[in-house]
Amino acid sequence: MPLASAARLKKPPSDPLVVRGEGLFSAGAKGRKPSIDRIEEEKKREIPVRRRSSSVGIRGGEKEDVKEKKDRKEEHTHRVGDSSCDGCGKVHHGLLQLQYTQSLEQQIALLELENNYLSHHSIVRPPPPPPPSSHHPPPSTFHSHVSLPHYPSALPTRPLWTEMIPEVRESPPSTGEREGRREKSGGFNDSGRRDGEEGVRGVRSSDTELLHRLEEYSQKLLGLERKLKEKMRESRSKEESINSLQSRLREIEGNLNTKTDSDAQQKRALMEEILDLQRRLDELTPILAQKEGLIARLENEKDELAVKMRGIQSENSHLQIRLSDRGREELMRVEQEEERRRERQRMEMIMREKEGEIDAARNRDRVHIEEMTRMKREVREEEMKRSQQKTMIDKLTEENGKLVKECSRLSAEVSRLEIRAEHAERDNQLRHIEKEASRELAELKDRENTLRIELAQAQESLHAERECSTLLQNQLKEESTREGEIRDVRARMERELEALHALSKSLSAENTTLRQEKLTQEETIDSLKKKLMDKDRLAHDQTEKLRDSERKYEDAMARVEEETSAQRQRTIELEELGQKLKDLSESLPRSTHNSATTSKDVMSSRSHELHRSMELSHRWTHSRASPCSVPHPPPYQGRATIDEVIEMTRSALGTIHQ
User: Fold this and answer.
1) Is residue 528 within 8 Å of residue 433, measured between CB atoms?
2) What is the DSSP letter of 71?
3) What share of the chain is helix, strand, coil (3-state, %, to 5)?
4) CA 451/CA 507 separation, integer angstroms
5) Three-class secondary structure of residue 627 per DSSP
6) CA-to-CA distance for 533 and 472, rounded, in angstroms?
7) Alpha-carbon distance 53 to 32, whole Å?
8) What is d(CA 115, CA 25) in angstroms, rounded to the nearest whole number?
9) 134 and 628 in contact (C-beta within 8 Å)?
């Protein structure tokens, strides 16, 4: 020990204790420097501490050479109990005072170093985020050494506490006074040296124990830092996985929305095609009725032309009869040629005229025949057009069948939607809306059934009309000679066609209204689907918020538990320091005992306050409250208590020196 102290005395004075202490405690401050006033104060304190430590080392080396075989405790009690050695008692009393002041100054230095360490950590450490609904202030910076993940770079290069042992130790404040007392004491110098050496060694052993304990705490802090780093890595990996899952969920929701939009667009396109086909059907039915009316009018004209042709034929027969009569007259005139030449000439002239008339009649007959052929050709063309119209009617019936199939498909889709609505009945808030939707779907089904029945009736009526048209055509072919019956049948057909035209108009109007109702029902179904999707999304968001609040609650509880454990450690350390001060005060005489008792009372009151704060924080930690209503424990004023202890020890030292 004396060799080590002498070697440390040879170090240059530019390596002060405070700089090393600040390098130890504030290394995790990431580049932050203490204030200039604080550095100057620490340097002023450093100079007497180093001088006292050097004097103690030299005197310790001199005292270790002179050892006796007797026990030091027995010699100490023998010298104190001897009433004849007044000078020895005075020297021993002065040595005890010096030892007590030395131990107090060492403890003050340790407390100041710890205070600097805690103050630097309280400056560097950012305040923890408050809980979402609590308005309590953040905890004190007394437990800021728990949040060590903020200072990972300085911890591996931290110097050990054992390296600071010779610099932390302190000697009595004035070595000149001790030398003067040693000269006055004369023969009692060796005994005073032995007692001083014993006291210094006791203080050194207590200091080494404290420093070893501080080193163990630093090792524990390193282990806690490693664990916290591992936990931080795990939390980051979990946050990354959560973010990736959330991004995948957003992509899936976007794809689902695009798919639903495309399905809705396809459905609208199909509905528009159906509406176009229905519109074309509605437009073609009156055109078909007009064509049939035109056919009926052409047939009437054909009948009128046939009547005219019959009149011409009757006139031709009359002319032929007249020609035969005139031939008889010519025979009679041949017999009377001689008598009636003039009459013959006249008759010849008449015959020529008649022949001209006959030629004209023949020409008229030829024209009539050509007109008849043309009318027959037109009739054939009309029949061909009618056959084409029949094919168009067949195509329209096929399209109607396709529309019926499409209606069945839509009914199947409606049933699937109804099943989905039944599955969505789990949510209690949407029961009323789902009941209304099911009731509307039932009404749609009933309307669909009525539409099917009406379509079946319309198909049956169309089939009946086709049969009637075929029967009428057969009757027209069979009874073409009967003009009156044909006219009656044609008039009846015209009346039926007009009725069918009116029926088609009414059916088209009903179809348009039904289509409009169907579109409105589909829009309501789409709106209900969107509401269901919004409700599901809202429920998912609420569950995510609940999980986040639970996670924050768990983090806050973990932080509070760590702070309470750190507070327990600090209270234990302060109690140990108070116990040491108590032991030292008991070893002093009655004159210094009063100041020590006052310091002891203050320390006991501070320890009781710390115990109360620890109990309150422990109760708040284990309370079963919701995450939003958990209050923070009251902040522990660690630095203020340390400053008060330092002031108390300084006042005690002042009273001792007086």
Assistant:
1) yes
2) -
3) 85, 0, 15
4) 11
5) helix
6) 61
7) 30
8) 10
9) yes
Q: Are 584 and 596 in contact (CB under 8 A)?
A: yes
Sequence length of the chain is: 658
Q: In which band, very low, low, confident or very high, does the pLDDT at 190 lie, cut at 50, 70 and 90?
A: low
**Which residue has 């396709």 as its token pair?**
402
Residue 129: is it exposed, middle or buried by C-beta count within 10 angstroms (0-12/13-18/19+)?
Answer: exposed
Cα 73 from Cα 79, distance rounded (Å): 10
What is the DSSP track for 284-330?
Answer: HHHHHHHHHHHHHHHHHHHHHHHHHHHHHHHHHHHHHHHHHHHHHHH
Which residue matches tokens 């009679």?
Answer: 332
pTM: 0.24
Contacts 24+ apart (CB under 8 A), 493-498: 493/292, 493/296, 494/293, 494/296, 496/465, 496/468, 497/289, 497/292, 497/293, 497/296, 498/289
- Tell me how crowded residue 147 is: count the other CB atoms within 10 A of its CB: 19
d(CA 564, CA 31) in angstroms, rounded, equals 29
Q: Which of 43, 84, 106 is nearest to 653 (CA)?
A: 106
- Looking at beta carbons, which pairs linking 290-298 to residues 24 or more positions away fall under 8 Å? 291/385, 291/389, 292/493, 292/497, 293/494, 293/497, 295/382, 295/385, 295/386, 296/490, 296/493, 296/494, 296/497, 298/378, 298/379, 298/382
Residue 493 one-letter amino acid: M
**Closest by Cα among 303, 301, 354, 306 to 327:** 354
pLDDT of residue 542: 85
Q: pLDDT, tens digit, for every residue of 277-307?
A: 878 888 887 788 778 878 878 888 888 888 8
Q: Which two tokens stand for residue 422?
A: 């039944």
End-to-end CA distance of the chain: 33
